[in-house]
Specification:
Elements: E1 2-6, H1 11-22, E2 26-31, E3 46-49, H2 55-61, E4 67-70, H3 82-103, E5 107-111, E6 124-125, H4 139-156, E7 161-166, E8 168-170, H5 178-185, E9 191-192, E10 198-203, H6 204-217, E11 223-226, E12 230-232, H7 233-244, E13 250-251, H8 254-271, H9 279-286, E14 291-292, H10 295-301, H11 308-316
Parallel strand pairs: 1-2, 1-4, 2-3, 4-5, 5-7, 6-14, 7-11, 8-10, 9-13
Antiparallel strand pairs: 10-12
Helix pairs in contact: 1-6, 3-4, 7-11, 8-9
Protein name: Epimerase
GO molecular function: aldehyde dehydrogenase (NAD+) activity
Domain NAD-dependent epimerase/dehydratase: 3-218
Length: 318
């Protein structure tokens, strides 16, 4: 089968490319000419160059393609370029959908996020949950929600698309959490904020496997939450500590973190600087809790992810 992966050089996209190749698919990867291709160094892949909103480039990349896996996204919290995030996450998804429909692609799998459900206030929810949060916690939250609306509209008109909603994606080359973990492994992470924050976890390779299963077995128009389960940040560090003997970081006092976040937020906006903590990250640490149940993916797709413990232990046994 011939497939297209958008964002093929990214964290999720590159792992998906490798999984698709392993099962024998012919893979086309959409990347920008300025993209870092280190993650694809050992891959046999046909590269198609173009921006995610470039319909001509998308049309050329989709020629002869059976399935499109749309993983390209601008993923970040904090002081982001909201206009660029809107362009990539919403208008990019619009372009992929329009071109795929015009060409007659047989199926599309869209990599969404559990964030589209909004703050569940700690309630464990499934795919039928209707968002109750009226506003949005971040530009990422808003743009991924709006992109999902486009996907759902295309599905309602008969386009064959399946959506997967991963929780926090982990792996040894994770660009978001691994820098923190590397600091911990060097014994330099003495204090951490938000130890009680609940985080859902899915291994990036299990996500890739689920996306392939969704293409093969997923109900058209369906949602599939992908998570091995969740635990607090402190519990995560306790697992790392058990494996390494390194002490768990102390939990920074919440009032201090909130004050520092507010101050750094202002400084960051003045100097166009991305601080390590800001109002938005503080909100995610203390005020927002999304919890999910991935039973449907296990039942309908036959998805069998590794455990949370195995996922986290792998990160420190490289």
């Amino acid at each position: 089968m011939k497939v297209l992966v958008t964002g093929a050089n990214g964290f999720t996209g590159s792992h998906l490319v490798k999984a698709l190749q392993k099962r024998g698919d012919s893979v086309v990867g959409l990347v920008r000419k300025s993209s870092n291709l280190d993650r694809l160094a050992d891959c046999q892949i046909d590269l198609a160059y173009g921006d995610i909103t470039d319909r001509a480039a998308l049309a050329q990349a989709m020629q002869g393609v059976d399935t499109v896996f749309h993983t390209a996204a601008y993923v970040e919290l904090g002081l982001v370029n909201a206009i660029e995030m809107e362009r990539v996450n919403v208008e990019g998804t619009r372009a992929v959908l329009e071109v795929a429909q015009s060409i007659g692609v047989s199926k599309m799998v869209y990599c969404s996020t559990i964030g589209i459900f909004g703050d569940t206030r700690g309630k464990v929810i499934g795919e039928t949950f209707e968002r109750t949060q009226k506003d949005f916690s971040s530009a990422y939250d808003r743009t991924k929600y709006n992109a999902q609306q486009l996907v759902d509209q295309a599905s309602a008109k008969g386009f064959p698309v399946v959506s997967v909603m991963p929780s926090g994606i982990f792996g040894v080359d994770d660009p978001h959490f691994m820098p923190v973990l590397n600091t911990f492994l060097k014994g330099r992470l003495k204090v951490w904020a938000g130890g009680q924050r609940i985080t859902g976890i899915v291994h990036v390779d299990d996500l890739a496997e689920a996306m392939m299963l969704a293409a093969d077995r997923g109900q058209l128009g369906g949602y599939y939450i992908l998570s091995s389960g969740d635990l607090s940040t402190r519990e995560m560090f306790e697992i790392f500590s058990q494996e390494t003997g390194i002490s768990v970081p102390a939990d920074a006092p919440e009032p201090v973190v909130r004050v520092v976040g507010n101050i750094l937020d202002v400084i960051g906006r003045i100097f166009s600087w991305q601080p390590p903590i800001d109002r938005e990250r503080v909100h995610y640490l203390y005020d927002r809790c999304v919890r999910v149940d991935a039973t449907k993916a296990r039942r309908e797709l036959g998805w069998n992810p590794r455990s949370i413990e195995d996922t986290l232990k792998e990160l420190v046994k490289r």
